[in-house]
Amino acid sequence: MLLVVKRTLGYFLKQMRQLRGFPQRTVANSLNITCSTLSKYENDALQPNVQTLKQISSLYKTSLDRLTGYYYEKYIKRLKGDKLFSDIEKVLEELNS
To answer: Three-state SS across the chain?
Structure first.
């Protein structure tokens, strides 16, 4: 049994902003949007368009894969095919039963 916490686009947007130490106002001003709009992106109430995502990834100096969480999804899929990972999953299943 694999415990995977679903991370949303908003989660990754907020995490990246905080990791870079940017206040919402600074990011919003750089993107020519309101703080309210940025907050909606970060809380998954509104989805940024592709152009805005490109601007954000450039501002945060990261790839779109990392910004959107796709990088992490690929990593989890690779782990699932690993024998050690499979063994750990089996042990966890036994412990939970």
So the answer is: CCCCCCCCHHHHHHHHHHHHCCCHHHHHHHHCCCHHHHHHHHCCCCCCCHHHHHHHHHHCCCCHHHHHCHHHHHHHHHHHCCHHHHHHHHHHHHHHC
Tell me: the pLDDT tens digits for 51-92? 999 999 999 998 887 877 766 666 566 666 666 666 666 776
The residue to which tokens 């790839």 are assigned: 63
2: closest CA among 74, 80, 84?
80
Residue listed under structure tokens 């916490």: 5
